[in-house]
Sequence to fold (305 residues):
Amino acid sequence: MLSIRDLVKVYPGPVTALHGVSLDIPPGMFGLLGPNGAGKTTLMRILAGVLEPTSGGVSLSGVDVLAHPDRLWSQLGYLPQDFGFYPHLTGEQMLEYLLKLKGVDRSMNQAATKSLVMDLLERVNLAGAAKRKVKEYSGGMRQRLGIAQAVAGDPSLIIVDEPTAGLDPEERLRFYRLLAELAERRTVLLSTHIVEDVAVLCPRFAVIRRGRVVAQTTPGDARRALAGAVFEGAVAADGLDELRLRHTVTQAILVEGRNRVRVFQPNGEVPPGFEPVAPTLEDAYLVMMQGGPIALPGAEPVMSS
Fold:
């Protein structure tokens, strides 16, 4: 269990990036969902031991990892949002270099290190590209190379920060399968602003907004909390601004010159021509981002701030 208690981070300015974040993250896949600038990367960097909090505590399996970061590093795999690769190296050379930096190969001879590198590349489906230079890799291939170094040493905790941003649909699906496999016997903390990532992968997730956790729930509970309160209809292009003044709009897609719009309306005041539809996780997330009144089982209420 990864336990986070009252984490605060204040940058010079002062700018408060985290306002007393508390979470209990069990084994398996856990999502941290929020927009860019919500504080997700600050939290990930603190958990990975590369940034000190202003106050608060973090423990992993009962060990205070802020006081004893060396006990965390041996159990941690980390894929940051911006992972630096040397483009002139091959995938094999890059991974071998990263293993040296992590100290994974300290007790190995060169042959054993080579074998481990190829095993890791095979695991992330990059063995066929081992001799290609990293500059020739697609975005998804680079992310998989990053995961290969993260899983080296068989860590019990893996932290991935915005791992699918910029990936095409095929690469994203491939990455989903890889992350789901990794979460079968360890804790994987997935930080993302992409709702689909959470909907596909995470049995539980937290929503963070402006440095505060505003909900901890499941995708199913989040959708059920909006049951009977989401409606969809067509709105003229010049009528959308007026609609936003009276209703919580969760989606607006332009189709043939008219907006196909979804609204959250819990009090029964439904716009003319709108019909009830099944809520999605994206509906729930966008309502929370706008400070809408959602009652989630086991979650603190969402408050405007």
User: Anything to note?
Assistant: The first strand starts at residue 2 and ends at 11. The chain has a mean pLDDT of 88. The chain has two domains: 2-217, 222-289. The two ends are 30 Å apart (CA to CA).
